[in-house]
Design brief:
The two termini are 34 Å apart. It is globular and about 65 Å long. 32% of the residues lie in helices and 21% in strands. The structure holds inosinic acid and magnesium ion. Inosinic acid binds next to helix 5.
């Protein structure tokens, strides 16, 4: 028994612990240097991971963020939903800047996102009216609905031409009535373009379960990359204002077909303040000039949709909740430099409802009030700092307080947009 286990390496997980856009891509890019495989386990091209290398800005949607490490294989796991043409475009853009995209592998269990999913997403949002979620409009939710309803098309099936055409036909038929008024491609166009994409992507498709387990069994180091954030998890986020997949660390097991015993460390990426795109509860949101200032300083506009992100102070109540959901070992704190120049910086340390202290589960309750702890800010830009000692005292105090409230060590702090603008604490 022990002998068998001894040859298995464990996969480490990096997840965002807020509402996405914590800077996971950046953190994964850094950690990836020590890994043989970087794997995505959920979501689709609703994600937008930005990595900046010199003058090149790379916006990844579905390809894992380990892409800049030439030796790292990039695995898109079975829990994801993939728009085949979107992926082909992304691969073409990466190939154009010299990336060897043959390293990208796609699980045969991953599901397709087709144009009728995006049309359904738009239709659903219109029907929700004032209660619209503010989805990315990429068809992610409807693709997961199809998966659960057993109407989805997997990449395994995508490779079999005969059945694919029939399945697309049936799916279009199912939807024809509900999608009236939407501009959908004809059945023959959709089948032809999907078959074309299938042919081009076929060399990337692998048996996803065999793939990941053979890596672990041969002692390869696997880094698992989350998408979106913990508070957008379909089960534990601010439902119904969430995405349609399990974004928390547990989702990695399901999304890759591995057991919890195959997981090593779990690192949570936390931005030094909070942002959210789309509708839904956001207790620490700043609707005043401070929020505007955070948005401008942090460049907080959506990678996928270009929407301005809602901004607010770091929410430690939400943070503690996410520490639990993910079983975090450690934290990576991003965008600390954005707080530079603020005279006072806030951390939300508590929620109160009608005078009573309440937990994150009360996040959407009318009349919820937040308790803000205020810190003195700092003027000194952080970009040049490479050690804790080089950080201003006020910034060090802020980091220490985050560690204290979340009861987890911060092992990395990002202090600028460049790849090397980082401080390692441990
Ligand atoms: P969907 O995932 O497109 O269905 O969108 C559902 C909610 O999740 C919306 O509020 C989106 O703005 C949000 N969302 C989805 N993906 C991301 C992401 O990668 N970063 C931030 N928010 C996201
Ligand atoms: Mg993003």
């Amino acid at each position: 028994m022990n002998d068998l286990c001894a040859h298995m390496s464990k996969a480490d997980i990096i997840v965002g612990i807020q509402w996405g856009d914590e800077g996971k891509g950046r953190v994964v890019d850094l950690y990836a240097a020590d890994y043989d495989v970087v794997a995505r386990f959920g979501g689709g091209d609703n994600a937008g991971h930005q990595i900046k290398v010199g003058d090149v800005d790379i916006a990844l949607r579905i390809v894992p963020s380990g892409v800049l490490n030439p030796r790292t294989e990039l695995f898109i796991g079975g829990g994801t939903v993939i728009n085949p043409h979107g992926l082909l475009d992304e691969l073409d853009r990466l190939a154009a800047i010299g990336v060897d995209v043959s390293r990208v592998k796609i699980s045969d269990r991953a599901h397709l996102v087709l144009p009728y999913h995006a049309a359904q997403d738009r239709t659903n949002e219109r029907a929700r009216g004032a209660g619209a979620i503010g989805t990315t409009g990429r068809g992610i939710g409807p693709a997961y609905v199809d998966k659960a309803a057993r109407n989805g098309i997997t990449f395994g099936e995508f490779a079999r031409r005969e059945s694919l055409a029939e399945r697309i036909r049936v799916n279009l038929l199912h939807r024809a009535a509900s999608l009236e008024g939407e501009n959908l491609p004809s059945e023959s166009d959709l089948v032809a373009s999907t078959l074309d994409a299938a042919e081009r992507l076929a060399p990337h498709v692998v048996d996803g379960v065999a793939y990941i387990h053979e890596k672990l069994e041969s002692d390869k180091r696997v880094l698992i990359e989350g998408a979106q954030g913990s508070l957008l998890d379909v089960g534990y986020g601010t439902y119904p204002y969430v995405t349609s997949s399990h974004t928390i660390a547990g989702g990695a097991c399901v999304g890759l077909g591995i057991g919890p015993t195959a997981v090593g460390r779990v690192v949570g990426v936390v931005k030094a303040y909070c942002t959210r795109v789309g509708a839904g509860p956001f207790p620490s949101e700043l609707l005043d000039a401070l929020g505007e200032r955070l948005r401008a300083a942090g460049g907080e506009f959506g990678t996928v949709t270009g929407r301005p992100r809602r901004c607010g102070w770091f929410d430690a109540v939400a943070g503690r909740y996410a520490v639990r959901l993910n079983g975090l070992d450690a934290l990576a704190l991003t965008k600390l430099d954005v707080l530079c120049g603020f005279e006072r910086i806030g951390i939300v340390t508590g929620y109160r409802l009608r005078g009573q202290a309440v937990d994150f589960s009360a996040a959407g309750a009318p009349g919820l009030e937040v308790v803000v702890e205020e810190f003195e800010g700092w003027e000194q830009p952080l970009g040049a700092a490479r050690s804790v000692a080089a950080l201003p005292q006020a910034a060090r105090r802020y980091i220490a307080r985050v560690e204290e409230i979340l009861a987890r060590p911060v092992e990395l702090v990002s202090v600028g947009r460049e790849r090397n603008e980082l401080v390692r604490l441990r």
